[in-house]
Fold this protein.
Amino acid sequence: MGDGDRTQAVYGEAWVYESIVGAIPGVEVSDRTAVLVQFAGFEAVLLALAFAYDLPGTVVPGTAAVAVAAAGSAFMLSIGRQARNAGVPVRYRRLLFASSIEVVLGVVAYVALLTYLFVYDPRDGATLFAALLGERPPVLPAAFALLVLWDVCYRIGTGWWAAVVALWRSLSYEFDADTAAVVRAVDRRTLAFGALQSVLLPFVWTHPPLAVAVAGHVAAVVLVATGSLLAIKQDG
């Protein structure tokens, strides 16, 4: 990712994540720097809160979630850069970026997660949230945990949308050799983007509904992205 990558993202052809970062006055950094700052900043806050509130059990799962979110940002930036290639169909780009449906899907995932954590999970006694933060979670660690969870859910929504739109694109268009190589690169990144979130499985394994949801999400994105790869049609 070179220093000029971010200048290629324009309003209407960028993820909401990219548009927000690009809209910060005076901020002009490379993709790599943006991802490293995201990871380092979140990890520093995580470690500081774990130390200040004596919550050592939050470090490993928290670091996993922060790493998934940061790596997800890297995949999003890479997918976005490839999808903005001049040969890629304009309608595909508009569906992928301008609709902002990845945000809607992220909100759906986040609402479902909060409903599980604070409505369904307490019915069985010990909850996942309490196991990490205690029966009376301190305010700042709880707020930070919810922020990180939103970050992860937004990436989950993005993975869903990227895979679905990729499959539609592959079934709807034929490509020349160069563009076919570009969309294959997009689909491989989308597939890896979905598979990445399997890192979260060990931390929710004792909560079957969450484990099934994460595993199902990963399997669905990998399956649809693979289907898109196989369906790419090259003219000539």
Residues 1-8 have pLDDT under 50 and may be disordered. The chain has ten helices and two strands. Residues 14 and 202 are 33 Å apart (CA to CA). The first strand starts at residue 174 and ends at 175.
